[in-house]
Amino acid sequence: MIAEHIAVTHHIWSWQGFPVRYQRAGEQGSPLLLIHGFGASSDHWRHNLAVLGQNHRVFAIDLLGFGGSAKPTPADPSHPQGIPYTFETWAAQVIDFCHHIIGEPTYLAGNSIGGIVALQAAVTDPDGVVGVALLNPSLRLLHERKRAELAWHRRLSTPIIQTLLTWKPLGHWFFRQLAQPKVIRQILEQAYGDPQTVTDELVQLLLKPAQEEGAADVFLAFIRYSQGPLLEDLLPRLSCPALLLWGSEDPWEPIEEGRQIAQFSSVKSFIELPGVGHCPQDEAPTLVNRYLREWLTVELSGTRKS
């Protein structure tokens, strides 16, 4: 069986009254849910779904506020009934998806902030998550508890910029400058170890949702979010095994810090991906698919070594 014979289908699920887009591939085997990073969508797993679906029931979800999912008004003092775009909110979405759509304990794989979402879901619902794979998970270096470690100019400028962007006209202008093909390509070429893997298709996959109503407000809500959990908060509370895959050329989540994160006892394996940047599943899908399949095989066989 080859990947081309595995159909990838698109679906809409209603969560708390909001439409949520997801994709799935494969009709048998243990379930795996793929969770994208900031500003991305389930399409960022387009090179993984069919391959992993050869042996597993694979799902990829658009987190609320991203991709083809709804982008409701963020909660703030002027909209107290809005949606709080936090890791707790997205973890609740993932947990409910596993219960209502997948219907059995699930393996999770998350890239960037998707890794934090996966961990938060696993800690919140330990019976529902049986393993977590983290692909260059977000270190959240601008978190308020980490600012003391930043260079003085970044330590001072970050809260000022966040405050300025609360003024909606300025925030929306800033977002419009980012949501342009040329700028998105430049950001991706910085984040990917091999700029040649940044395609027009990829740029358009990220650009299209950014042009939808509500996208700017979601973006601004998250970049002002400097609280919530860190990897080092969640990993000690994790009751299932974790796999870490880390691109060595990630400019945002340095691999040296990844090696420190790998010291937590819940991390059973740390694999460096040489020459790869922040989004390994898209930049080096052959490698990622192989490691995820091997990880699932070992986990399911019960032969994992502690």
Describe the structure.
With 306 residues, this protein is α/β, with parallel strands linked by helices. The protein contains twelve helices and eight strands. The chain has helices at 49-52, 87-102, 113-124, 152-164, 168-178, 181-191, 200-210, 215-223, 231-234, 255-261, 280-283, 285-301; strands at 8-15, 18-25, 31-35, 57-61, 106-112, 129-137, 242-247, 267-273. It is globular.
> What's the arrangement of strands in the largest beta sheet?
1-2-4-3-5-6-7-8
- Count of helical segments? 12
Total number of beta strands = 8
H-E order: EEEHEHEHEHHHHHHEHEHH
**How large is the share of residues in beta strands?**
15-25%
Could you report the average pLDDT, rounded to the nearest whole number? 91
Helix content: 25-40%
Structural class based on helices, strands and sheet pairing: alpha/beta
Silhouette: globular
